[in-house]
## 1
Amino acid sequence: MEVQKVRLRIYGMTCDDCAATISKSLKGEDGVLEVKVSLEDGLGEVAFNPERVKPADILKNKIFAKPSHYKATIDDQ
Amino acid sequence: MENDTERFDLIILGRGAAAFSAAIKASELSSGGMKIAMVGVGPLGGTCVNVGCVPSKYLLEAANAVFRPRHPKVPGIEPASVKFDFSELMKNLRSYVSHARDTKYVRVLENYGNVKLFTGLGRFIGKKTVMVSDSEGNRKVVLSASNILIATGSRPSVPNIEGLKECGFQTSDTIWGLEKLPKSVAIIGGGAIGLELGQALLYFGSDVTIIEALDSLLPQTEPEIGKSLRLHLENEGMKFMLKSRVGSVRAEEGMKFLDVVSPHGKEVLEVEEIIVATGRVPNTEYLDLNMAGVKTDQRGLIITSRNMKTSASGIYAAGDCVSKSMFLETLAAREGVVAVSNMFGEDIEIDYNSSTWAVFTNPQVAGVGMTENEFASQNGSCSFRIFSLENLTKASIMGETDGLIKITVDPKTNRIAGMHIMSPNATDIITEGAYAVRENYTIDDVVATSHIFPSISEGIKLAAQSFIRDITKMACCVE
């Protein structure tokens, strides 16, 4: 299994607790191996097992779903 | 990527309805955090507010105000002449357009500090990189973003008719600059734009002839409505040359002469002005879509999924530049929202089937869902009823009984598959049809729902009731 990484542009974070909350929720996603969330940059880096989860699924994580005010898009620049 | 590339989260190519709708939705979803570049040329707001829905509806309202007193519907009321200054009227139309653009677009954008406006033509120079240049192609700035929305809209198409360009003509882009009412007008194209402009000019006093290549008007609607509208407009004085095409045009002594080939042979039409209303073409040719791997159809329209995703990852499209069958401002705005929502990981699709469309003639025409022919060709059979406004009390009182309501249902379920209306206020009451199609209402649902008597909307209930009884033998308000 080859570990893949995806970078997320994360919106709605205002404090360290926000970053921690998002990080915890993403780590709970099946197939997600490692998560680093930067409050300062508004970015998240997620390492995942592509056989078990896809970037589109990570965007659908409950932490980004209504009524949460945290939102994310894929950042592939 | 070059050093001077300015990075954004989202680049929107275009600045019309789809672009604004997308920018606002993206700003809302990101709590104003999404850094957005909006790139385009021309006045903010695009076609609808500047040269489309807004000026055309203004013109039609003014035309109705001139026409109605001259043609009272109530016996005992004498016709009254209405004086008007066409030049002043057009000046106020342009002033209103400017006001609408300012309040609905220019000032709205001031609320979104995360949106940066770039004036210039944007074109792809990489999969996620766009170069903005001036009208002469000189590079102004290079932008990049993970997500890009193409919403560059469309413009009037002009057929290749000999002598047309030399002769001069108007389109729905240019007609708003008219200062003088033309005494006679030939309109090439009998679609929504041609009919609306034609009726407005007819009401002001122009002699109007519509030249249409097909044998009927408004092919997107039910044939009964196309025929009924043509008869109504003919009774008002509009002339039609159906199954006809313009071979060539020439100008002599201030007049324009169209050589028309019709089923009656060759005819020469002499008019003061020509309006070309033969459809629209997408603004996609300068985008260098190949650089980004975005595919188009044969007409240059961008192919998308129902999620508004193009063939290139991270690139979406919305509005009149998208390959589809309906080109509407409201649809463009919805497509913009769908595209942006999907960038944020949602999984929503555009619903073309319950999208309403309209023609703002008098009477108005509006529709939603499938026609009888469309449903029958897809499903083998269908059930429909046509309700004439002659049987509608409100229409009789108004003296406006030209029109009909046609409902098509799935015979297996009685669910409403389509509703097409020609009536006063059709553009308002069609929303009932939109709910019915979107929510799979049956004719029983419509019958069981209270409708005001007497009203035009009651016609929808009567049309539904006509599936279960002969409404000519029905007293008022039978449930």
## 2
Amino acid sequence: MVNLILIIALPLLAAFLIPLFNYINKKLPSIVVFLTTAINLLIIILNYNQIILEPVIIELGNWQAPFAINIYVGTLELISITVISIISLIIAFYNLNHSNFSSESKFHTLYSIIIAGIYGIVMTGDIFNLFVFIEITTVAAYGLTTFNKDKGYEAAIKYIIIGSISSVFLLMAIGFTYSAVGSLNMAVIAAASNLINPGLVRIISLLFFVGIAFEAGILPLSIWVPDVHSIAPSAVSSTLSGLVFLAGITALIKIFFNLFADPSLYVFLMIIGAISLIIGELIAYQQDDIKRMLAYSSIAQMSLVLTIISVGTKYAISGGLFQLFNHAILKTLLFLTAGLMIKYAGSRNISDFGGIAKKIPLIAVGFSVGSLGILGVPFFNGFVSKIMIVNGSLNAGEYILTFLVLFATVIEMAYYLKVIQTIFFGKISINPHKIVKSYVPIIVLITVVFLLGIYPELITKPLNQATGELLSRSDYISNVLGGM
Amino acid sequence: MIDFLEKWSFFGGSVLLILIGLYGVITRKNLIKIFIGLSLMDTGINVLLVSLGYVEGGIAPIITSTINNNSYNFVDPIPQALVLTSIVIGVAVLALGLGVIIKIYEKYNTLDISEIRGLRW
Amino acid sequence: MNFRKILALITIILLGIFILQAFLIIPEKGEIALNNFGKADIENRTAQLYIDKSVNSTNEQVIYKESKDKESGSANIVTSIVANYRALDTLGEVTVLFLAATGLSAILYNKKHAKSNFILKEDSFILKNGIKILFPLLILAGSYIIIYGHLSPGGSFQGGAVIATAFLLKLLSSKEYELDENILKIIEVTAGVSFVSIGLYGLYAEGSFLTNFLETGTIANLFSGGIVPIIYITIGLKVAVELTNIINDLMKA
């Protein structure tokens, strides 16, 4: 048993040391970041078997559980950090060869810290600590966005303005909660939430929603997403779209299932999510810029996850969570391959990618695998989760929702298949702008996609357990508070 | 009456500060003015947090030769610690934002968002 | 008053009503809501445990210069929260500042070694010599605020900001003044690494990250509080360096 706090502490330590490593050798920072992400994966694997049996509570500074900051790792958190560690390792590997920025060591510093922040958002059991980790993640993301010297600044300023406004509302929610309950610990708040005036609960949870949803890719707070995701370097887009959204949704789930379980809120979440889903898909359909299209698709996917989870039945929640993790894997693959195609073709427009598959087959195949996975074609990982989502919403009697999900899938199919058609059968019209090579990350990601597509039990079994934990708040409370 | 005024001058005042800041962010066109609005919002939320932890007649929570933990009322120390954190985070974001603004100014020679491509909303 | 402003005004007013009604809720019996102004409830809550220093131990009176070996030894209770009970938040906060400084220097990287284009008039005699006198005093005051942070009001963030002000004045007063970026970098790395290392040593020695592994001593003595003053000094250095870096970068941009 290795203490799980190390997966936050080690990336921070590495980031603080990077100026020194950079002084020794310019190549060293990327290698160090790669090694820390690898060690993190190792730490999680060493802990896996124990946490799956019983949630782990890490008391920081040896202070008794509800009174200071504590870190809570249940099954949902365990699956999240496992997925995060795998993806961050792959992206760190990609960064070894593809980060030729003018200030490379700073890029790796920010990347290392954003990973620590994402782990923190997922694992923390304290609402103010959640705020701090959200700020770490967003400030690192602001910095990473500006590494595109061409257009990054406009996107970054939009991101900073919206992020700052959201963080004010998040702090307000935290202040109100603290004033009412007198504690910042999630379990204490959960235990007291039945006593809080229902009107106040609604205000607080809406403020929490405003504060976190901007990080989770739900419209209308996520109008920064297309700008930032399309402009940031590919590794950053994958991190933001795959991992930061995952962490944001996990935080929202914690707030709305562990902290305040008020059924009237779920209806609100469902409506917001459904609107955001349809709008996201419709705008994605109109895009010609491939990364903008992927960004809007991310918004739609996150809204889909939020909508389905707010249905509130066990089956639907498992499906939504499965889709969340699938999306993280697939969008990493899509953004990495899209970035490589852009580099190769020297253009961002889908129409300029005609016949690119004949030149760089592996990358084109990687992109297609990602697209088909998102669409939910059999044998891809998205298939099982789509089935679970549709079944879950049907079983819960939400027929309108089922219709919307299917409608969204049809739009999705239209624009993803259009891209696949262009890159495989389009007229060859490209002069290679730049030779690109990247085999290992793409092959690994494709393997993961098929592994989960053919053996979904790998993840559905722990997911069912996680859903069970989410729906039994009293267990969560008694785990943290003990017999109190 | 005094109670009423006291309550609303802190709670209402800090919320008003946040709203004024937000109004500035929405309506102003100059990037620097937008960031002044963001700073106002930050200040407002900090005042709100501290005033939520205020105890009538309370003093700063420091143990000195005349004051120990049982003999006096202390104000709530936790919001003060939180505000310390949020101030520093606000400064960090502000500094980063100003750096980006400098770059935008170099590129477009203006700070008016209606003249900057990709910033119109 | 155009359409956009009216729309903004309406949004703001609606938002204001939405937020302010939180203060107007009068709880029914048994319910809890926001506290009234000046009626923050501390009794039986986490805050009282922090004030009594009795999270892990039993409640005893904490007496100035007498109480020994309490679980957290700093006389300033806010400090004990910032650097001891909720030290992970503070680590995160320092990280955010570090991120901002790093991000800023990456943004302004191209012009890093250009001379300041900040238009300064001919160095005036009073400015130059006044700052010569002020500079050591500000450094002294900043260091005092940091080192006595666990005993008196103030602390590492405030002290770090004061030290950074000293360098800001120095930069403003003279065109020729250049900060040695290597020294800044060394201090930055040392401070950040020692903060995390203190935490990791706590994990190694006591089994939990950021645990106090030293004697906490007598309340209100200079050498008391266990790791609190050490953490505070590292934070103070880090804050001073990061703020100086930020000022330096912004002035050279």
